[in-house]
Amino acid sequence: MTVQTWTYLLVGITFAVYIGIAIWSRAGSTKEFYVAGGGVSPLANGMATAADWMSAASFISMAGLISFMGFDGSVYLMGWTGGYVLLALLLAPYLRKFGKFTVPDFIGERYYSKTARIVAVFCALLVSFTYVAGQMRGVGVVFSRFLEVDINTGVIIGMIIVLFYAVLGGMKGITYTQVAQYCVLIFAFMVPAIFISIQMTGNPIPQLGMGSKGTDGLYLLEKLNGLSTQLGFAEYTKGTKSTLDVFAITAALMVGTAGLPHVIVRFFTVKRVRDARKSAGLALLFIAILYTTAPAIAVFARTNLINTVSNKPYSNMPAWFSNWEKTGLLKFEDKNDDGLIQYVAPPEINELTVDRDIMVLANPEIANLPAWVIALVAAGSLAAALSTAAGLLLVISASVSHDLIKNVFNPKITEKQELIAARLSAVGAVSVAGYFGINPPGFVAAVVALAFGLAAASIFPAIIMGIFYKKMNKEGAITGMIVGICLMLFYMLKFKFGVFDGGKAAIAGLKAQWWFGISPEGFGSVAMLVNFVVALIVNSFTAPVPEEVQEIVENIRIPSGAGDASH
Amino acid sequence: MNDNVKNARDYWRENLRCLLLLLSIWFLVSYGAGILFRELLDEIQIAGFPLGFWFAQQGSIYVFVLLIFVYVYWMNQLDKKYGYDERE
C-alpha cells in the first residue's frame, strides 16, 4: 500500500474512534459539560491532560526547533515540563478543593469581586485564542501534505471534527477522546523514534541512543558538534543564547504552563484532592515520554539531514526532498550554480532553507521507514492538534457561558439555558479559531510562544497569592493582573512586532534595547515579578480581606471534604 | 486556640516545609545543573553526554517526574497523620 492509502486508512480509523467516543459520552448537564461530571479517574485524567497539553507545537515543531537550536532548545524541554511541578505542588490540589468550574470562578470568588472575574476572563480568553489559532493551522498543514487536500479544506475538516465532539460531549466527550488521542500520538511519536535510534546507534531506546556511538564508532553528539562547527553553526551542545535569557525564558514557560487555563481545568474533573495530585504526576510521566524522546529525535534528524544534503548533488536528492519542496517548507536555491547543495550558516552562501516544522514530519521519510510509519505520524500530529484545540475551545466556551453570561450578565439563567449557551459559545469559538486557521495573521506562531508569557504575567500570580497569602485583597490582585498583562502586551508589541518603531523591519534593530537583555519570550518572568510586587504594594494600603474570604482560603488548604464541583 | 484550628495550622506548616524542600530540588536540577552551572558540569562526560547538557535535556525531566510522585506519597502520609484522609 502507498503512503497515501495508509494515511487515509489510519486517519479515517482514528477519526471514527473519536466520533464514536463523542456519541457515547454526550454531556447531559452543565457539570458534565464543564468538568466531565467530576468523576474522572486519575489515570484517565493523566492521559487526557497529557494530550490536552501536547499540542501541534510539541508534536510537530518542538523536536525540529531543538534540532536547529541545540542546547538553547532546552528552554522548551525544561520549561514545558517543570511547570507541572509547580502545577502539582502549588495549584492543582487547592483548586480542586475549591471545587468550581473555571479559573475565573476561583479568581472571582477568592477576590470577592466581579471585576476580578472579568479581568480573569479577559486574560483566559486572550491566552486561549492565541493558542488555538496555531492548532488549527497545524491541522491544515498536516492535511495538505499527507492527504493532498488544500490547507483550508484541511482546517475545515478539522473544525467539523472538533465541533462534533466538543459541542456534543463538552468536557466529558473531550476527556475520553483525549485519552484515545494520547495513545495515538505517543505511539506515533515513539515508533519512528525507536526505528531511527536502532538505525543510527543500534540502541532501541532513543533517550540512550542520543548519548551512544554511531555506526562509525564516534559519539553522536561529538560528531554533530564537529559537523555543526564545520558548516559554521554553533556547537550543538553549547547554544548561543545568554545564560540570563535562557533562565528567563525557562522561567516564563514554566510559570506560564502552570497558569494555562485549559490545563488547570483538567484538575477540576477528578473526584478528590488526592486524585488531583496523583493525576498531575501521571500527566507529567506521560508527557515526559515524549519530552525526553524529542531531544533524541532532534539529534538524529539533524545528523541525518546534514549527512543527506550537505555538499551532495541536487539531482541525486531522494523523493522526500521534492515532496517537501512542493509544500514550500523546503527551499533550494543554487547560488553558485555548481549543482551541489551548500547547507551552511552564513546566509549569503547558504542555499538550503529548511522549515523547522518538517523535521518530525519528514523524519520517517528521511530515514526510509515503511509507509505505515509515515502515515502514523500524520495521524499522531492530527491527534495532538485536535486534542489541544478541543481543550482550549472548552475553556473559551466555559468562560463565555459560565463566567460572563451566568455569573455577570444574567444570573437568573436556568441550567438548561446555560448548557445551550455553552454549546453555542463552543460553536462560536470553533468558527473564530477556524477563521484564524484559514487566514493566519502573520504572527500566529510568534504569539503562541508568547501566550505563556501572558499566562505567567496575569493568571499565575493571582492564583498563587489567592492560595498562599490569605491577606491578599481584591484591589491588589486586580491591579497586579492588569499591570502584569499590560506590561507583557507592551513588551510583545514593542519588541516582537515593532509596533512603536515602524513595524517588522525594526525588530532586529531593537534587540539591543531589550530590557536587561531579556527576549520577549522570556519577559513573562519579569512581568510576573512585577505583578507580584504591584499586588503587594497596593494590598498594603487598601482595605483588608473580609473574614469570610480568609476562611475560604483556610478551607482550601485542607484536603478532606472536597465535595463535588458545584456552582 | 481550638484543636481543629491548631491541627489545620500544623498540617499547613508541614505542607509548606515539604513544598520548600521539593521546590529547592526542582530549582537545583533545572536552573542550577541545567543552566547556571552547566558549563562546569559539561566538563564531566557520561557516555556521549556532557553532563550539563544531559541535565538540561534529559535529567531535569526525570527528576521532575520523581518529585511529583514523592510529593503525592508525602502528602498522603500527612493527610493520614492529621486525619484528613479522603478515603475515610
Give a verbal description of the structure.
The complex is a heterodimer of chains A (567) and B (88). Chain A is mainly α and 567 residues long. Chain A has a single domain, classed as Sodium/glucose cotransporter (Up-down Bundle), CATH 1.20.1730.10. Helices cover 71% and strands 1% of the residues of chain A. Chain A has helices spanning 3-24, 30-35, 42-53, 56-69, 74-98, 103-110, 114-146, 151-201, 206-209, 220-230, 243-258, 261-264, 273-309, 319-326, 358-366, 371-409, 415-438, 444-468, 474-495, 507-510, 523-540, 547-556; strands at 330-332, 352-354. In chain A, strands 1-2 form a two-stranded antiparallel ribbon. In chain A, helix 3 packs across helix 8 and helix 7 runs antiparallel to helix 18. The mean pLDDT of chain A is 87. Chain B has 88 residues and is mainly alpha-helical. Chain B has a domain at 28-83. Chain B has 3 helices and 2 strands. Chain B has helices at 3-36, 38-42, 51-81, and strands spanning 45-46, 49-50. A two-stranded antiparallel sheet of chain B has the order 1-2. In chain B, strand 1 (45-46) and strand 2 form a beta hairpin. In chain B, helix 1 (3-36) packs antiparallel against helix 3 (51-81). Chain B is elongated. The mean pLDDT of chain B is 91. At the A-B interface, helix 5, helix 10, helix 11 and helix 13 of A face helix 1, strand 2 and helix 3 of B.
Quick structural gist:
With 567 residues, chain A is mainly alpha-helical. Chain A has helices at 3-24, 30-35, 42-53, 56-69, 74-98, 103-110, 114-146, 151-201, 206-209, 220-230, 243-258, 261-264, 273-309, 319-326, 358-366, 371-409, 415-438, 444-468, 474-495, 507-510, 523-540, 547-556; strands spanning 330-332, 352-354. In chain B, a hairpin with a 2-residue loop joins strand 1 (45-46) and strand 2 (49-50).
